[in-house]
Amino acid sequence: MLEVRERIGAGGAVVEALDEASVRTAAAECRALGVEAVAVCLLHSFANPAHERRVAEILREALPGIAVTASIDVLPVVREYERSLATVLNAVVMPGVSTYVSRLEDRLVEER
User: Fold this and answer.
1) Bridge partners for 68 per DSSP
2) CB-based burial of residue 73 (10 Å sphere; 0-12 exposed, 13-18 middle, 19+ buried)?
3) Spans of the chain, pLDDT less than 70
4) Which of 49, 62, 96, 100 has the greatest number of beta carbons closer than 10 A?
5) Phi, psi dihedrals of residue 49, rounded to the nearest 5°
6) Cβ partners under 8 Å of residue 67, min gap 6
7) Alpha helices in the chain (DSSP H)
């Protein structure tokens, strides 16, 4: 698990602005680890998704070809455990499903 510097309160107010440099540092660590997918789940993103959306955007730019899943896009609910679990599961299956769909598309093109 990697952390980035930011804080949004339970009501949606920004308590600490997103430190984009910390996101880029996390992206570099992901690249060094050779990850295939990243799950982004910030504590109060259900109340204000701005930071989580920006984190995902930066990661997608910094890690081309790596599956990035944001919890706000998977299960935007208050319950952190369920939201985190759903996001991690989505991130885990994304590379395999993406490969499968890509192969299926290739075979369909060949069949034409």
Assistant:
1) 38
2) middle
3) none
4) 49
5) -85, 5
6) 36, 37, 38, 91, 94, 95, 98
7) 20-33, 50-62, 71-74, 80-111
Please enumerate in sequence order all residues whose Cβ is within 8 A of that of 14, keeping only pairs 6 or more positions apart, or say none: 7, 8, 48, 50, 51
CA dihedral 87, 78, 8, 86 (to 10 degrees): 0
* Plot region of 23 (φ>0 → left; ψ -120 to 50 → alpha; else → beta): alpha
Token pair for residue 28? 């570099």
Decide if 35 contacts 11 (C-beta within 8 A).
Answer: no
Pairing of strands 14-16, 7-8: antiparallel
d(CA 107, CA 112): 9
- Across 28-47, b (16+ Cβ under 10 Å) vs e yields eebeeeebebbbbbbbbbbe
| pLDDT of the residue at 98 | 85
pLDDT digit string (tens) for 42-71?
A: 999 999 999 999 999 999 999 999 999 999
